[in-house]
Each structure stands twice: as structure tokens, then as C-alpha cells.
Design goal:
The protein is built from 20 helices and 22 strands. By secondary structure, it is α/β, with parallel strands linked by helices. The protein has a seven-stranded mixed beta sheet, with helices on both faces. The chain has a six-stranded antiparallel beta sheet with strand order 8-7-6-11-10-9. A five-stranded parallel beta sheet has the order 2-1-3-4-5, sandwiched between helices.
Length: 622
């Protein structure tokens, strides 16, 4: 027996009480109203499953009451009761939405039977609606799990990032999405983004231990992005084994604000994604173990090419940089013959290990041949690659096995780097430029005059050596010694400043050293203009003025210029220099006692001068 809430409406008190009592005795929750207006007031306050109403009443009749009640609640059942056997009124009542029509006098048993049939229909509709809703929920859940399984089955890290973003955006109807996943130092790094997101507004790194991130990330539940309006964007943590491995941003839902349903869908996909990220890392680690050269531990070339292909795809899609380094052991055969096979093998193994130590987890070092290796440096620009080369050389020189071999013969190690997209947009172009820079290094005065043997802080010793004429300069070298003609130093300063002005956003640094005053006003005038606030923190170009503090000279005010006062260093009294190193060019001019001048565009030599100057005065590295 179906029971429910019933509203009885009749203007005659006798029938109102009779019908109400009969239905109440049958177990139904019953309310009564003596007019259609009173009934509508009750319908506004309470929810009923059935209305039993008289048709003929003063004011609004029963047909109008049923019509208005059904308008408000289409699921409401209605039964009409009247004292007249009038077919026309029965038809009107049916048209208004009545399911049954009874004529007075009505037997209580008949009224209860008709009411329970009507309530049975209500219950059937509810059960059907619930089943439909449950089926829809099940269908949605199955669709989510199918997409989650697709994510779980993806072991390629780059493809996983794109797939996860695509699925998250699809299940939440988000038009913009971004993904950060954990890097080697625990930071969450921006890996991918899609749709209508402002790339410049996205942080490159997120510290999961930071005050504003730690609690919501570990909570695991989606939360509103603090930088957006209510419901406009949400952040979805990726947590695996209670460890935050990433976070996804979803924004600009097409059909209105994000709600509970979208939060639940995003959380489900995020759980799959977090597990998939950890699995992809484990798979990559296992894959790497099986793809290493047994002798040196370097990866094989097939793996390197595959990895490089993914890096090209990522760099092109997200406008990022990466660098390719070619490492060449120029006299491998001589080392093997003169040092012996076993010392040579140990030296090569330790050389590869030293270079690998300088790199990060994401960097890939591969063996191409006995004397050549490639290194891929993701997310690394030209200056980052230059720093890698410097550190790699220093690390290799510290190896005991290398030092023992060098007691018998020199270890001639050449390295050249090329950067995407500055030097090229395919592998062959990058390889061409990297090998070209190896040729530059082999022909550089650094190699010809054995300048690598000097102390890392021997800037003035190297300057005096180049100025002295102790070592001959080949005619093919881009270097020359001369005597001062005119204000050559000021001209070199101005030209370097103009080079910065031609491309203000290109990374570069200009070091000017001397007593100060000579040509500095013209140098500052040639630099690109800009207010300090706009250039604050801008790492693209910097100018450093080194030397003693001038007594009467006013400080130079320019956002790119930093004055470094070295009052106790007497070498600035008779020496001056201009060192310029940028993404596009390299130039050095040294001036010494007696009007001697040395200038060069030998990039390895300029880099060596800059490195020694930075080391000597503890200046900011590249």
C-alpha cells in the first residue's frame, strides 16, 4: 500500500471531515482546506503528493485549483470529487490534470482505493526517476573510470601531461587548464597548459611546502583558485601516497561556475593522474637502467634521440628553450696508447660520471662513440648551457683518474652547446652549431696558450699574459694586440651598449673596469631606456661598472647599471677592460700600461675572462 501526504479541499465541512478522516485512518498524512485559495496557500508552504478536491466551490473552483497546482508541481496527482454527474465537468477536470473523477456520495473505501492508486503512480514515478538518475550517475562514473584507466595506462610523461589536462578540461567543461608536476627538487613546475589561459600569469614554480599551498594541496580536495572570482577557476591537487605530486588549474567553465559535480569529477580524474605520474616516473627510471652503456653508464643513442624528440615537441608547443651539448674527447686514441687501456677506461668512466654529476635528473647524457657524447639540457637557455660547460670542465679536472692520465698525456676535452630555438629548430641544426662551437674552442687562444691551466681567479694574470705578447696570435684568430688609438675604450663601451639596445630582452652582461669617468656618460646614453620598477628583477641584460669610487663623480642611475666599488685594488690605476657576453655575441677589450691593448671576439676566451673576473670579485654568475 502506497502512503503519502494528501490535501483534501471541499467547501462543505461534512465532506471535508469525512474524506480527511477516511484517508487518515488508512495511514495517510492528511491536511484539509475549505477553499481553493486556502489550498494554494498550503501548497506553497508544504509538499503534497495528492490533492483530492471538490469541483464546485465558491470563488476559484476545483478545475482552476488543479490547473494552478499542476503548474506549480507537475508531479502532483489530483482526484476530482463533485456532487453532480456532469460529463462536461469530468472532461474539464481531466484536462486540468485530474487522474480520477468521483461523484458524491463517495464511499470511504472507494476514496481510499482511488487515492492509493494515485499515490502508487507517484511512487512509481519516483522510483523510475531514481533509477534513471542512478543509471546516469553510473554511466558518468563508468565514463570517468574509462578515461581514468586510459590515463593510468599512459607511461610516457609528456603524453600523460597532455592527456590528463585534456580529460580534466572535458569532464569539467573547462575552457582553460594548466598542470604543474613535481621536479627533482620537490617544487611543482609548470609542465603544460591549454585553452584560454594567460601563460604570463601562471607561476613557473609552486612551492608545495609554502604557507599558502601546503594545507590545501595535502587535503587533496579541489579548492577555488585565490586569484579568480567565485566559481571561475579551481585548483585540483594530485596526491599519491599522501604526497603532493602536482596540481591542475581549471578555469572558465563554458556553462557557468564550477559546482560540486565538477569538483567530484575533477577529484576522481586527479586521483588517477597522481598514480599515473608516479608510475610514469618509475617506468622512466627502470627504462633508463636498461638503456645505459655498461662501461660508462651513459644512455644509448636510440634513447637519447627518442627523448630529444619529446623535448622538441614540448619546446615548440610551450615556447620553451632547451640546449644540446656535444662533448668530444679529441685525443682519445693518444690517451689509450700513452696512458694504457685500463687507466684510459677509468678516466673515461670518471669523466662521464663527473659530467653527469653536474647535470640534473632531467638532463640526459648519451654515448655516441668512444670519443663523443651528447647531453640534453631541458628548460636551459644559452647562458644556462654556458654555466653547465663551466661546471662540467671544473668537475672533470678534479677527477683523480683524469689527473693520473694527464701525467702521461694531455686530456683534450672540447664541448660546444647550441640552444633551441636561438640556434635552430631541428636536431641537425643544433648539432651543426654545437659542433661549430667545438671547432671554435679547438682554435681558441684558450686551447692554444693552455689558459685552462691558470687559477680560476687569475683574471689579472690572464689579462697581463694577453697584453704582454708572450704568446703568438695566429693570423686566423679573431684576436689582436694593438696600441691605443683615440678613445678606443669609450668606443667599445658605447658599441656594447648599442648591442644591448638593439635587443633589450636578450640575455647578456657587460663588465666595464677602470678608473671611471671615461665614456661612461656616453655608455649610459646608448643603453635602452626604462624605469626601475619595470625592469626590476629583469635578468635579460646587465651592466656592471667596476673600479674605485670617484671622489666627485655622481652615482649613475639606470635600471640596468650596477656599480661595484673596488677601492683597495690598485690594478685599476693602469688597467681597464670591456667584457661583453650575450646570447648573440662576445667581445673583450683589455688596456694595460704603456698604451697596450688586446681585443678579441674569441667566444671561449671572452667566456674565460668573464668567468675569472666573476670568480675573483665574487660577482653574480650567469
Amino acid at each position: 500500500m502506497a502512503t503519502g501526504r494528501i490535501l483534501v479541499v471541499d467547501d462543505e465541512r461534512l465532506f471535508l471531515e469525512l474524506f480527511g478522516r477516511a484517508l487518515a485512518n488508512a495511514g495517510h498524512a492528511t491536511r484539509t482546506a475549505s477553499s481553493a485559495e486556502e489550498a494554494l496557500a498550503l501548497l506553497a508552504e508544504e509538499r503534497f503528493e495528492l490533492v483530492v478536491t471538490d469541483i464546485v466551490m465558491p470563488g476559484m473552483d476545483g478545475v482552476a485549483l488543479v490547473r494552478e497546482a499542476k503548474r506549480r508541481d507537475p508531479e502532483l496527482e489530483a482526484v476530482a470529487v463533485t456532487g453532480r454527474e456532469d460529463v462536461r465537468m469530468a472532461v474539464e477536470a481531466m484536462k486540468a490534470g485530474c487522474a480520477d473523477f468521483l461523484t458524491k456520495p463517495v464511499e470511504p473505501e472507494e476514496l481510499v482505493a482511488v487515492a492509493e492508486r494515485a499515490l502508487g503512480r507517484v511512487q512509481l514515478r519516483r522510483e523510475h526517476s531514481q533509477l534513471v538518475s542512478e543509471n546516469l550517475d553510473l554511466t558518468r562514473a563508468q565514463a570517468l573510470y574509462r578515461q581514468g584507466l586510459q590515463i593510468l595506462s599512459t607511461l610516457d610523461g609528456e603524453r600523460l601531461q597532455d592527456l590528463a589536462l585534456s580529460v580534466l578540461a572535458r569532464v569539467t567543461d573547462a575552457q582553460g587548464a594548466a598542470l604543474w608536476t613535481a621536479g627533482e627538487r620537490g617544487e611543482l613546475l609548470l609542465r603544460a597548459y591549454r585553452g584560454v589561459v594567460d601563460r604570463a600569469a601562471l607561476p613557473a614554480r609552486i612551492d608545495p611546502a609554502g604557507a599558502e599551498w601546503a594545507e590545501p594541496l595535502r587535503g587533496g580536495a579541489p579548492f577555488e583558485a585565490p586569484f579568480a572570482g567565485a566559481g571561475e577557476a579551481m585548483l585540483v591537487p594530485l596526491v599519491a601516497d599522501d604526497e603532493p605530486v602536482g596540481v591542475a588549474l581549471l578555469s572558465d567553465r563554458a556553462a557557468g561556475p564550477f559546482g560540486a559535480e565538477e569538483h567530484q569529477a575533477a577529484a576522481t580524474i586527479a586521483d588517477f593522474t597522481a598514480i599515473a605520474v608516479k608510475n610514469a616516473r618509475r617506468f622512466q627510471a627502470v627504462e633508463r637502467v636498461g638503456l645505459r652503456d655498461r662501461e660508462t653508464g651513459a644512455y644509448n643513442l636510440a634513447y637519447f634521440v627518442d627523448y630529444a624528440g619529446k623535448e622538441f615537441y614540448k619546446a615548440r608547443r610551450y615556447a620553451r628553450s632547451f640546449s644540446l651539448v656535444v662533448l668530444s674527447l679529441d685525443n682519445a686514441e693518444q690517451m689509450r696508447k700513452e696512458a694504457g687501456r685500463e687507466p684510459y677506461r677509468r678516466a673515461v668512466r670518471d669523466l662521464v660520471a663527473a659530467v653527469a654529476r653536474v647535470g640534473r635528473d632531467a638532463d640526459i647524457l648519451a654515448k655516441v662513440s668512444e670519443s663523443e657524447y651528447y647531453v640534453l639540457l631541458p628548460e636551459t637557455d644559452h647562458f644556462g648551457a654556458l654555466m653547465f660547460l663551466r661546471r662540467a670542465v671544473e668537475e672533470v679536472r678534479r677527477e683523480d683518474a683524469i689527473q693520473r692520465v694527464e701525467e702521461r698525456c694531455p686530456v683534450l676535452l672540447s664541448m660546444g652547446a647550441a640552444t633551441f630555438p636561438k640556434d635552430g629548430e631541428d636536431f641537425d641544426e643544433l648539432l651543426h652549431w654545437a659542433r661549430g662551437r667545438i671547432l671554435e674552442q679547438r682554435g681558441s687562444l684558450v686551447r692554444r696558450l693552455h689558459l685552462d691551466d691558470l687559477d680560476p681567479a687569475a683574471f689579472w694574470e690572464l689579462s697581463d699574459l694577453l697584453l704582454s705578447g708572450a704568446g703568438p696570435i695566429p693570423e686566423s684568430s679573431p684576436s689582436a694586440r694593438a696600441r691605443v688609438e683615440g678613445d678606443l675604450l669609450a668606443a667599445a663601451q658605447r658599441e656594447a651598449a648599442r648591442e644591448i639596445a638593439r635587443d633589450p630582452r636578450a640575455r647578456g652582461m657587460l663588465y666595464v673596469g677602470g678608473q671611471g669617468g671615461r665614456g661612461l656618460a656616453a655608455l649610459v646614453q646608448a643603453l635602452p631606456p626604462g624605469d626601475a620598477a619595470a625592469r626590476a628583477g629583469d635578468p635579460s641584460a646587465r651592466v656592471y661598472l667596476l673600479g674605485p669610487r670617484g671622489r666627485d663623480a655622481a652615482p649613475i642611475v639606470h635600471p640596468l647599471v650596477t656599480e661595484v666599488y673596488l677601492d683597495g685594488d690598485k690594478r685599476f690605476a693602469d688597467h681597464a677592460f670591456v667584457l661583453f657576453l650575450s646570447e648573440h655575441s662576445a667581445y673583450a677589450l683589455l688596456a694595460g700600461p704603456g698604451g697596450r691593448v688586446f681585443h678579441t671576439s674569441d667566444a671561449p676566451l671572452v667566456d674565460a675572462l668573464v668567468a675569472k673576473l666573476q670568480h675573483l670579485y665574487d660577482l653574480q654568475p650567469l
